Amino acid sequence: MDGGEEENNYTSTLQTVSEGEWAGWSYYPGGDPYEDLAGPFYFKIGDDGRPVCAFRAERKHMNGGGFLHGGCVMTFADFCLFVIARDDIKGGYSVTATFNGEFVGTAHEGELVTCTGEVVKAGRSMVFVRGLIRNGEEPVMSFSAVLKKRPARTA
């Protein structure tokens, strides 16, 4: 997902799950091959009107020590920052310009990993975002990032 205005980025189409654990959640299959491999990562709008992102930790997300791999956490955080900023990056596409994260906890196989956050400031060309990834109530990673807005793609 790169935050393009249309719900079709590359070959992805915003999909909403209709049944099972993720009923009511949305995701972007096909638009980011690495996220497709690492995920799926989901999001929905929470009761407070802000996005919530989530995924269920699977064996493929674990490191050799049996807990959530740092690269998976960072990939999920990158997905989340575009969801958090999606209203502020419409009209083109965006790229991650900077990313800072602090690992403060972990998750294990089968656990639900969630993320909430906020846009700190949205300027003409940069959007500043921060978020917190959790395993239940336990923090896993706090992060901040800057997204660089790019002009709309032409065919």
Mean pLDDT: 90
Question: How far apart are the termini?
Answer: 18 Å
Rg, Å, rounded: 15 Å
The number of E-state strands comes to 8
Shape from CA axes? Answer: globular
Strand adjacency order, main sheet: 3-4-6-7-8-5
Summarize this structure as a short list of keywords or feature phrases.
155 residues; 8 strands; six-stranded antiparallel beta sheet
Describe the protein's architecture and organization.
The chain has about 160 residues and is mainly β. The chain is about 15% helix and about 40% strand. The protein has two helices and eight strands. The protein has helices at about 35-40, 70-85; strands at about 15, 25, 40-45, 50-55, 95-105, 110-120, 125-135, 140-150. A six-stranded antiparallel beta sheet has the order 3-4-6-7-8-5, with helices on one face. Strand 6 and strand 7 form a beta hairpin. It is globular. The relative contact order is 0.18. Mean pLDDT is about 90; it is low at about 5-10.
